[in-house]
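EI: anyone free to look at a 121-residue chain?
SC: sure, send it
EI:
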Amino acid sequence: MTEQSVDPLAPVVAKDGRYDREAYRFVFEALDFTLKEIGERRHVNGQELLDGIRAMAVNKFGMLAKMVFNRWGITRTDDFGEIVFNLVEAGLMGRTEQDSREDFHDVFNFDKVFGESELKR
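SC: here you go
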């Protein structure tokens, strides 16, 4: 058995090595988290997913969120768009005609959202 047959993310990570495998796993986790927060199974747009990513990151990593994301190759919200569309292109995530990478462009600033003063609120 090859690594790709065991791990469906292997070809995605091999094709675009900018992001760690854990970043892709986190996006799937954040999608599940977002759907639970919404309370129904339906399509989630980029803004909703980013809201879920932000909330889950704060819950899971606290003040280390920005550092964790940076280690995974993620430094801005646009990176999450790249990850999502890599998953879409691999057939591991769906999209609608209205979805685009632009939905993830500069949505929030990591320093502001994951900064120490913000997390104490």
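EI: The CA atoms of residues 7 and 21 lie 10 Å apart.
SC: 👍
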